[in-house]
Amino acid sequence: MKAVTEVLEGILVDIEVSIKSERFEIAGYNDWRGRIEIRIKSPPLKGKANKEIINGFSNLTKKPVEIISGLKSRQKTLKIYNLTKNEFLKILDLK
Question: In this model, does residue 95 exceed pLDDT 50?
């Protein structure tokens, strides 16, 4: 899976975001774009969508998460600290 890369402090995760969902959810993996598709409830106003993404991934992984690129884009890169690629893929169950 090209969307997940291991780095010194944890992993980088490339995602693509769709809004107006009923809740935060992992929709799957887009092979063509090389990104994990995420659906969120919050609109992209005043950072609400970014907060939902950070909270969603923090709750899912129980690790600190930050958005390192794409703050104002549908395509983002997250950094999840203290987690390996294999641990993350097990959590997602997308292998």
Answer: no
| Count of other CB atoms within 10 angstroms of residue 66 | 13
Report field, pTM of the whole predicted structure over 0.90: yes
6-36: burial string, b at 16+ Cβ within 10 Å, e else: eeeebbbbbbbbeeeeeebebeebeeeeebb
Question: What residues contact residue 37 under an 8 Å CB cut-off, 6+ apart?
Answer: 15, 16, 18, 26, 27, 28, 29, 30
Q: Are 79 and 69 in contact (CB under 8 A)?
A: no
- How many whole angstroms from its chain centre is CA 18? 12
Question: In this structure, which topology does domain 4-92 adopt according to CATH?
Answer: Conserved Hypothetical Protein Mth637; Chain: A; (3.30.1200)
